[in-house]
Write a structure and sequence with these properties.
By secondary structure, this protein is mostly helical. It contains 5 helices and no strands.
């Protein structure tokens, strides 16, 4: 059992040291690469230009196409995301509305603010008497 724990610990330490050594070499060579005036620097700049900057237009067109496709796919779904339900169906609400001096073509609820204080009090009393027997 101890042998297995020791072997696993040594393997993890060896892997850690290998990774740290690799990271050190990458940093060291990168620093030396930018100090030297070699053809490699020009090649690196051209590689970035052709793989990054030149491909930017193609990437932008693809991103736009994916965005439009996602938007159109979302619009295909006609069902609402959130549905509201009323405590009482509208038929019951119409029965509770008292007779009031409203015009025929307008919504009764929107005309409540146009009533005089006496008429509004009368409507409220009728509502209370019909909802609370």
């Amino acid at each position: 059992m101890l042998e297995r724990i020791g072997r696993a610990t040594r393997e993890r330490l060896r892997d850690l040291m290998y990774g740290l050594g690799f990271f050190y070499n990458v940093l060291k060579e990168s620093a030396l690469f930018f100090r030297r005036n070699q053809v490699g620097y020009r090649v690196l700049v051209m590689q970035i230009l052709f793989t990054g900057y030149e491909a930017l237009r193609i990437s932008a067109v693809l991103a736009l196409a994916l965005g439009v496709g996602g938007y159109l796919a979302g619009r295909v779904q006609n069902a609402p995301v959130v549905e509201a339900t009323l405590a009482k169906p509208p038929a019951d609400l119409n029965e509770l509305m008292p007779e009031s001096p409203f015009e025929e073509d307008e919504d009764p609820i929107s005309q409540l603010s146009d009533l005089s204080p006496e008429d509004a009090e009368l409507v409220l009393q009728r509502l209370e008497s019909t909802t609370h027997p």
